[in-house]
Amino acid sequence: MTKFDKVWIILNPVAGKGKAEMQYPKIKRFLQNRLQNFEIVTTSGPGDALLLARDLPIGANDITVAAGGDGTCNEVVNGLLKRPAGEKPPLFGVIPIGRGNDFSSTPKIPQDVDKACASLLAANEQLIDVGFVKGGFFPQGRYFVNGIGIGFDTKVGFEAAKLKIKSGFSYAIGAFILIARYEPSPIINIRYDDKEVTLPAVLVSIVNGRRMGGSFYMGPHALLDDGLLDICYVRHQRSRMSLLKILSHYTKGTQENCEGVTFSRGKRFFLTAQQGGMAAHCDGETICYDGKELEISCVPNAIRLVRPEL
Fold it and tell me: Radius of gyration over alpha carbons of the chain, in Å?
């Protein structure tokens, strides 16, 4: 266990389409009753959590906590990893008060605010990997803790963002919208380690965590600390019904039993759109709408995650 010198909470009040702001008093009350040295800072817009995590006077034995959803986690981790490197990787925690809260599901961080705060104070550390993607809007690169979605998954996220529903159920609705539209899939060349494949890919997931989109297990066997990223890709299906069947398996993590679905693992991936373009996101942050090339790699032992006891 680690005793923190200070707990920094970076809270995104608009996470969960505004419901996160209502958790501020609860988080503050919990910490006031148990800690002397903590600070809650709120973000004011996109990118602010990254700047705060990068620029706040965070000590080597302080923990920085993302209070929000996957986008907030993404920004905080990017900010922490832009700080000067210390003797140890930075300490990172999560209070999952966003919409999907996908990353926090893999280490089983509680969705209940009080329980999530209590798990932080228990201070159980796990050294975990992160991913790094170069391309699209981020030619210099962007870190991610949970995963990259390319194709169908990303377009579902675009549709879900348009909806007023405040839960992960919005992703299911977005999926049905995309199935009804049933757009053609790009031809993508994927190279990783000693493997290479070219296919019409309706969906490609390269993940560190197990779940994305609130209820879809893109990498059901993924591990946060194995030095590898899991890849799952789906060849374009001939009919809407066959695609719908595969997606139904994603909600249980059993899609490897479906024809046209491939699982593997690797350290570095190169994706090239040979025909059409790639729509891609990492942890809910848009990487590109019509990208041609992406390079994705695993960065082992990048952060110390504080999580419930293993």
Answer: 19
Assign 31 to helix, strand or coil. Answer: helix
CA proximity to 130, closest of 95, 103, 99: 103
Q: How many CB atoms lie within 10 A of CB 111?
A: 12
Residue for token pair 């994927």: 190
- Could you report the per-residue pLDDT of 122-145, keeping only the tens digit for each? 889 999 999 999 999 999 999 999
For helices 240-250 and 169-181, the axis angle rounded to 10 degrees is 160
d(CA 126, CA 108): 12
CA distance 305 to 91: 6
Residue 196: in which H helix or E strand, if any? strand 195-207
Predicted pLDDT at 173: 74
CB 90 within 8 A of CB 304: yes
165: pLDDT strictly greater than 80: no
Q: Give the CA-trace dihedral at 81, 83, 87, 93, to 10 degrees.
A: -50
3 state DSSP class of 4? coil
193-201 contacts, C-beta under 8 A, 24 or more apart: 193/266, 193/267, 193/268, 195/264, 195/266, 197/233, 197/262, 198/274, 199/233, 199/235, 199/236, 200/235, 200/236, 201/150, 201/151, 201/233, 201/234, 201/235, 201/236
**Among candidate residues 77, 67, 130, the one with its CA nearest the CA of residue 101:** 67
Give the 3-state secondary structure of residue 143. Answer: strand
Residue of 15, 67, 16, 17 whose CA lies nearest to 39? 67
**Measured distance CA(91)–CA(230) in Å, rounded:** 24
Run of H or E residues at 17: none
